[in-house]
Each structure stands twice: as structure tokens, then as C-alpha cells.
Specification:
The chain is α+β, with helices and mostly antiparallel strands. The chain has 23 helices and 24 strands. The strands form 4 sheets. It has a 15-stranded mixed beta sheet that branches. Strands 15-16-21-18-19 form a 5-stranded antiparallel beta sheet, with no helix packed on it.
Length: 768
């Protein structure tokens, strides 16, 4: 059999384009200790991370003050005057109350400019033993090292530069709230750069925060010319639709401050866990953050920071070209133009008798079959959870072997798609096969052009696909090298979403990844359609899939490096005297069974308590426990009176042990006229006719204590209202309490994130 070297070389070129595309998403080299002191060094930045992330340092724990002192020391050593801003803040919606202590410094400009803000948060996630190396020690270290390098240059900037390390971000963005609403410098800020993390690896995504259009911001970002921009307006549009909250959101909502925030999301399974330690932080991700801030600080320190605009822009990053952007007003003309070209090309192909309509229609069959198989294949994640239910307790939704599983499913999808197209193969049918995926992509582009405008750049690969088909029709024997290059934009624009969606949102998004795999395959048909080696490639990708699944299986167990998240709590109902052990786990390991037994009861069947946690988790299993006395809080009422038909009630809750969190409940049906928590007035949110009247549960408040400061509540309501409160006190010292003599957590487990765990919990009811 004659070997088609052109096809082999074009396939290798396709693989090279995939590799090159992913390699441009973040730096491939790390700046070492030998880097000049006037430049950012990842090695030096990592030394900051090492110091910041020695211990868990959430609000209220001893190491929190140690981290605060360390940051102040570093800023002072740079010759900066440092201010601590301390106050209570309450976050509506979250119901989060805490004291926050921000760290603030300023590098004055020459007096003729505006004000740039550099920010990150320095508190770590609470009650999970997270040391906060990535979230957000990486952000703090990025700013410290960049500011140090900037100061070493001994240059005077035109604009003032404010450095803000917020506190209590993990509790309710409270540090950002007290800064933007109460600090005298907040009103002067024109632009904010915020550095964050939702994992411990991967490229850093740039997201825009603005109340207006993003056009001027995107142009300025492109002019700043960071070395590896990783940004697109699809994520911007999705972000604006979802109830996302970061410190940048608070600045935008409360201060109308525009900004950019940067966050990497790879290795999402480390997010908010005890594995958020320096050794797990990918130096390339830290380098990426440093490259961003170095370029943006160099540009924005002297630039005009008035970047308010009305018009939004479509934007995306592209290898070599970096940032491509155009206004939303181009979306409709580009969409209409693509449809016109598609129809014109179809008519041209049929009239020229190069293609037959029946052959074009036949091209829809392999694509639709592949999409259907892709959906069925995506159910494999549900099958894995059924076989190995412990994976469901990784609440981020992306397990430790997630990359291997994703590789296995995608490779299997490619193998199946090659096999399907092999059975539909006819010589020189690449053009006829290409019309079906182009039609599907036109439908997608039309849909997003109406409902998700930021994703409208998906029309660009369609134009290149149409051009590739035209080249085929014009040439009797098209050059596969040219056709492969025409497929490059599809690879550069689409391919990374196959990875980003499942990594960031969990393997529940496997269906999206597999659909995109098939549709991207369709965009490559002008080249792949000429391959006679489809069967061989199907076998090759099947072997890759098998290898990936074997690798995934080898990493499916839980080890010291891949610990299983476990939750154990002791609950004492003060009024009834009942006591229970309870867990949020859906799968019980041997350690949990030592306390809960082999067959614990369903928690909701033996007691009723509210759930907690970021994902609305509720206790799953429970067991009655020996009674141990845990001191409940004391409630003192300082005012309870009726004036002009209104009831005025003031009370304080004093902890009688080292309580970390208090959670307060009151019936959502109670109409509250005014509410103050620790002096902070709760304001009605948009759409609320009175304070907190849009609550969808009885949850009222979560209060993180510092130095055992009491909770002080002042409220005004109707005189006849029945006020029945329920108070939960949490202290995260169950495993340290010698009264319980519980076995230590094994080294292959860790505290479960996003829920209250390892807690001594008291429940008490009081009414007025």
C-alpha cells in the first residue's frame, strides 16, 4: 500500500498546532533567583509564598496575625508607610459578618495623575486547614515581588499606586467592603488589578469587572501587552450572568471602580483544602501572575486610567497575535456575512457540479451519530460515580484523576468519531462532509450572537472553514499543508474549552467537552476528510484512551498526596439534651465508620438541622452520641420595647468557649424594618421591599468571631411579631478535645472543604 506522507505530515502538523496552542496559554520558563533585582522573579515570589503559607491563617486563628505582621514587615522594608484598617462588615446575600483588618500602603505618583489599585486577599479559607498558598498567597506574593522590583527601579510614576491586601475575603468579601465604603482613598481609585486563585495550577484567566462596556479596558489591556494573555469574552459574558463574587465585584458594585482580576483554576481539587500548600503551587502559574502584573503596572503607572466606556467588545487570545478584539456592533454583520457565504458556497459547489446535495446531506449522518455517541459517552462520569461513590465527596467536582479521565474520554470520543467517519468515507469527500459541521457552527454562532454575545468569536473558525472548502472546490488536488494551516484558528480558538470547562466546573461538564470535541473534529474535516488512515487513527486514539483510563484507575485511590475529604461533627442540642455525631460525607471511609458505625442512620431521619457550605450541603449520616457538656453561648437582652406599634429589640450573644462561628436563624416570614449586626446596618438589596425579605430560607447571619467578640443584634419589627431564634455555635476543635478521645484523622484524609467540619456544634433556641 502506498504511504501517504502528506497526510501523515499534516496530521503531525495538526498535533503540533494543538501543542503550540496550549503552550502559549502560560509561560514555559520560570524567572530564577539570578533575575536582576529590578525584575520580577518567581523564585523570590515563591519565598514569600513559603512564609505566608506556613500555617492555616483564616480570620480568628493565631496565624492570621502572624501573616498580617509578615506582610506589614515586607512593605515597611520597601520603605512604604503601612496602615491597618479595622472594622466590622456585613455582606448582604451571603449573610456574612466579621471583623476585617486590611493592610494598605501607597506609592505616591508625581501628583499629576490618577490612582491605580493593586489588590489581593491574605486570609485563607476557614475550617479546612488550608494554608492558602495559592488562594491567595500567590496573589499577595505576586504584588509584593512586583512592588519590590518596581521600587528597585527607583522610578517615579505619574499615577498613585495603592497596595491593598484585604481581609475576610473568604468569609464575605468583608475587607473589600470596608475599604470601598469607608476608606478615604477609595473614592480616588480609577482602576483595580486583583490577583486570585481557584486552584493551584494552570494558566491565569483575565476577567473584566465594569458596570459599563469593556471596550476601553480591553484596548488598554492589549496595549499593556502582557506576554501570555489568556482571556476571552465568553468567560466575561458567563461571569456577568452568574452570581460570582470577588473583591473586584465589591469595588465595582459599591464604588463603580473598573478593574481586571486574574485567577488560575487548574488542579481545582486543591481549592480551599489542606492541600493548598506551597509545594502544590505550580511555579508557572505564579510566573504568569507576575508577567501580568509587571506588564500592566509598567503601562498603567503612567497611562490614562479613565477607561469608562459604553460599548462592549468581543475579545479572545490567539497565539502570535495575542489579543484580538472588535465591538459588539460587528457581531450581526459578521454573522449575516457568514450565512451568506455559506449559502453562496453551497450554491457554487452544486452548480459547478463538484458536489451533490445528497452527498452534502449524507455528511450530516456521521456528525449527528458522533454527537449522540458523545452524549451517551458523557454518562460515563455518572457510571464512575456509581462504581466509586467516594469521588462524589470531592465537592469541587474534579477528582484527582480528573485529567486522566478527561483525556481518556476525549481520546475515546476522537477514536469513535474517526471510526464513524471511516464507515462514511468516500474518496475526495472532504468538502461535502464539511458542510454539516459548518452548518452546526453557524447555528451555534447565531445562538450565542443573540443570547451570549461574548462567545460570538466562534464565527471566526467558520470563515476559515468556508475558505478551506472553497480552496478544495477550486483545486483538483488541494495542498494539505495549506488546508491544515486554515484549520489552525479553529484549534487556537476552540480546543482549550475542551479542557477548561470540566476543570473549572467539574466533570459534570464532560458532555460539553465531548460535544466540542466532535464539533472541532468537524471543523478539521477539510484536512481529516482526505485521510485514508482513519481506521488506524481510530485504533491509535483508542489505545491512548485505554492508557489514560489505566492511569486514571491507578490514581483513583486516596493517599497522603491525594487525601480523601472527610467530615465529622459533634452536635449538642441544648434544649432537648440530644447529642449526635454527623457527617456531610456520602461515602464513609474506615475512619468515619469508627465513630458512626457501619450502618449509620440518615441524618434527616433522626434530627433536623440546617445545611451549611458553599454547595448547600446538608448532613448525610448521623448517629446518637454519648452526651458531653459543651458550654452554650449566653444571651443578654438590653432592650425589648414597643414604640408606636414597632418593636425594638437589642440583644447580645456572648460565647462561653472558643467559638469560631455563630449562625443565627429567624423565620423568613418575619418582616424586619431595620437590622444592625455589631453596628453594621443591613441595607435592602435590589428588589427587596424591606430588609432581608427575599431570603429563601430562615438563615439570617453567619458571624466569624475574633478574640471572642460578642454578636450584637439590633432590630425593629412589627409589635406582634413572634421572634423565635435558633443559634448554632461552631468551634473547630472536635479532634483536639480530649473529652472525646476520637481517633486521629489518617494521613490519607483531610477536612472536607466548603462545609463546617471537625466541629463542636451547639444548637440553642430563644424567643421574644
Amino acid at each position: 500500500m502506498k504511504i501517504n506522507y502528506a497526510a501523515i505530515l499534516s496530521f503531525l502538523l495538526l498535533l503540533g498546532l494543538f501543542y503550540y496552542s496550549f503552550s502559549t496559554h502560560k509561560p514555559q520558563s520560570i524567572s530564577g533567583a539570578e533575575t536582576p533585582l529590578t525584575q520580577f522573579s518567581t523564585t523570590r515570589a515563591m519565598s514569600y509564598v513559603d512564609s505566608l503559607a506556613q500555617h492555616p491563617h483564616s480570620v480568628g486563628v493565631p496565624a492570621h496575625k502572624e501573616v498580617q505582621d509578615y506582610i506589614v514587615q515586607q512593605l515597611t522594608a520597601m520603605g512604604l508607610e503601612v496602615e491597618l484598617q479595622s472594622d466590622f462588615a456585613y455582606k448582604p446575600g451571603w449573610g456574612a459578618l466579621s471583623r476585617a483588618e486590611n493592610i494598605i500602603a501607597k506609592i505616591p505618583g508625581d501628583g499629576s495623575g490618577q490612582t491605580l489599585l493593586l489588590m489581593s486577599h491574605y486570609d485563607s479559607a476557614p475550617h479546612t486547614q488550608s494554608r492558602g498558598a495559592s488562594d491567595a498567597g500567590s496573589g499577595v506574593a505576586t504584588i509584593l515581588e512586583t512592588v519590590r522590583a518596581f521600587k528597585a527601579q527607583d522610578k517615579k510614576a505619574k499615577n498613585d499606586i495603592i497596595i491593598l491586601f484585604t481581609d475576610a475575603e473568604e468569609l464575605g468579601l468583608n475587607g473589600a467592603s470596608i475599604f470601598v465604603n469607608k476608606h478615604k482613598w477609595a473614592k480616588d481609585i480609577d482602576l483595580a488589578l486583583n490577583f486570585e486563585a481557584r486552584g493551584s495550577a494552570g494558566p491565569s484567566n483575565m476577567i473584566v469587572e465594569t458596570n459599563g462596556g469593556n471596550g476601553a479596558l480591553i484596548k488598554a489591556f492589549a496595549k499593556a501587552n502582557p506576554s501570555h494573555p489568556f482571556a476571552n469574552s465568553l468567560m466575561y459574558s458567563v461571569y456577568k450572568l452568574l452570581p460570582n463574587d470577588t473583591d473586584s465585584t465589591v469595588l465595582r458594585e459599591d464604588g463603580d471602580i473598573d478593574g481586571f482580576f486574574f485567577a488560575f483554576i487548574g488542579d481545582h481539587f486543591d481549592y480551599h483544602t489542606a492541600n493548598d500548600i506551597p509545594s502544590r503551587l505550580d511555579p508557572a502559574s505564579l510566573e504568569h501572575q507576575g508577567r501580568y502584573l509587571t506588564a500592566l503596572l509598567d503601562y498603567f503607572k503612567d497611562a490614562n486610567l479613565n477607561l469608562k466606556a459604553e460599548e462592549d467588545y468581543v475579545y479572545f487570545n490567539m497565539p502570535l497575535l495575542k489579543m484580538i478584539y472588535y465591538p459588539f456592533s460587528w457581531i450581526l454583520p459578521m454573522l449575516v456575512g457568514a450565512w451568506i457565504l455559506f449559502i453562496a458556497l453551497l450554491i457554487y459547489a452544486v452548480k459547478k457540479k463538484e458536489l451533490k446535495l445528497i452527498a452534502i446531506g449524507r455528511g450530516f449522518l456521521p456528525l449527528i451519530i458522533s454527537l449522540i455517541v458523545g452524549y451517551i459517552l458523557s454518562l460515563g462520569w455518572n457510571l464512575i460515580l456509581a462504581i466509586d461513590p467516594a469521588q462524589a465527596d470531592i465537592l469541587q467536582g474534579f477528582p484527582y484523576n480528573g485529567y486522566e479521565l478527561l483525556t481518556g474520554f476525549v481520546a475515546l470520543m476522537i477514536a469513535i468519531t474517526f471510526a464513524v467517519y471511516y464507515f462514511f468515507y468516500k474518496p475526495n469527500d472532504a468538502a461535502s462532509l464539511s458542510f454539516a459541521p459548518l452548518f452546526f457552527w453557524l447555528l451555534i454562532a447565531t445562538g450565542v450572537g443573540i443570547y451570549l454575545k461574548g462567545a460570538s468569536f466562534f464565527i471566526i473558525p467558520v470563515y476559515f472553514g468556508l475558505l478551506a472548502v472553497f480552496v478544495i472546490l477550486q483545486s483538483g488536488k488541494p495542498n494539505l499543508f495549506i488546508l491544515t494551516l486554515l484549520c489552525a484558528p479553529a484549534i487556537f480558538i476552540v480546543a482549550h474549552y475542551i479542557k477548561e470547562f470540566p476543570v473549572g466546573l467539574g466533570l459534570k461538564m464532560l458532555v460539553a467537552a465531548l460535544m466540542l470535541t466532535v464539533l472541532l473534529f468537524g471543523l478539521l474535516l477539510p484536512v481529516i476528510g482526505y485521510y485514508r488512515m482513519k481506521a488506524k487513527l481510530a485504533i491509535a486514539f483508542a489505545l491512548v484512551s485505554i492508557g489514560a483510563f489505566i492511569s486514571a484507575y491507578s490514581k483513583s485511590d486516596f493517599t497522603e498526596d491525594r487525601p480523601f475529604p472527610t467530615s465529622l461533627n459533634y452536635i449538642y442540642d441544648v434544649d432537648s439534651g440530644n447529642t449526635f455525631y454527623a457527617t456531610y460525607n456520602t461515602h464513609l471511609d474506615d475512619w468515619l465508620k469508627l465513630t458512626l458505625g457501619e450502618n449509620p442512620e440518615v441524618a434527616s431521619e433522626i434530627f433536623n438541622t440546617a445545611g451549611s457550605g458553599k454547595y448547600g450541603s446538608k448532613f448525610t449520616f448521623a448517629k446518637k452520641a454519648p452526651k458531653k457538656f459543651i458550654a452554650p453561648s449566653q444571651i443578654y437582652t438590653s432592650r425589648d420595647t414597643v414604640i408606636d406599634g414597632k418593636r425594638f429589640l437589642n440583644f447580645s450573644v456572648f460565647p462561653q468557649r472558643n467559638v469560631n462561628d455563630m449562625v443565627l436563624f429567624l423565620s423568613k416570614n418575619v418582616v424586619l424594618n431595620t437590622v444592625h449586626f455589631n453596628g453594621q446596618e443591613v441595607q435592602p438589596e435590589n428588589g427587596e421591599t424591606s430588609v432581608l425579605n427575599n431570603r429563601n430560607s430562615d438563615y439570617l447571619l453567619s458571624y466569624r468571631l475574633t478574640n471572642r467578640e460578642p454578636l450584637e443584634v439590633e432590630l425593629v419589627t412589627e409589635s406582634k411579631a413572634a421572634l423565635d431564634f435558633t443559634l448554632f455555635d461552631y468551634s473547630y476543635d472536635l479532634l483536639k478535645n480530649t473529652d472525646f478521645d476520637l481517633p486521629s484523622r489518617p494521613i490519607n484524609t483531610m477536612p472536607m472543604p466548603f462545609v463546617n467540619t471537625d466541629a463542636l456544634i451547639t444548637i440553642q433556641h430563644f424567643n421574644y
